[in-house]
Design brief:
The chain is mainly α and 170 residues long. Helices cover 56% and strands 7% of the residues.
Length: 170
């Protein structure tokens, strides 16, 4: 039997981290890991409702909600009742957008894997042909529109984190 070169991945105890900088960094990494795991679950289960609310060590609120805040809160507060028609439509619309974006992301992953010989897809804009630019432009517009809509929701208090967080003066 060959000797192991490393001890591998080990479970670390959840305990207060004394050093402030290390505590902030660890929170950020664990938050991202939690969001990633939630996103993976959403991709695996079509009708999953998920909501995560957490506060950083400095008190800054963070949230992750799918498909919508209303769908998650209704399900939590009224588990035995059917959602309203508008909430069901909004949730279904959100789920469809996630599926569409996942397909686009998968397409980009396939494209990136097919172009493994290239060092970096974004090295030179001059190398893009018209079709690539058109596809990227459409994708960026859709992302821009979703981000604008989400910002409007947050500014209007549509998220628990938006209500608790002070508005930015920018």
């Amino acid at each position: 039997m060959a000797d192991k070169k490393s001890v591998g991945r080990q479970k670390i105890p959840i305990a207060k981290i004394e050093k402030e900088d290390a505590r902030y960094a660890t929170f950020s990494k664990r938050r991202k890991g939690l969001y990633k795991k939630a996103s993976e679950l959403i991709g695996q289960y079509d009708d999953l409702d998920i909501g995560i609310i957490m506060f950083s060590p400095t008190g800054k609120p963070y949230s992750f909600v799918h498909p919508t805040v209303d769908a998650v809160t209704d399900r939590l507060l009224y588990p035995n009742m059917l959602s309203s028609e508008s909430n069901r439509l909004a949730a279904e619309n959100s789920r469809n957008k996630v599926k569409e974006l996942q397909v686009k992301l998968d397409d980009y992953d396939i494209t990136e894997n097919d172009e493994a010989d290239e060092i970096n897809r974004w090295d030179s804009i001059e190398e893009f042909d018209a079709e690539e630019i058109k596809k990227d432009k459409i994708w960026f517009k859709s992302i821009d529109e979703m981000l604008k809509n989400r910002l409007i929701q947050l500014e209007n208090g549509a998220s628990p984190s938006a209500q608790a967080a002070p508005k930015d003066a920018n």
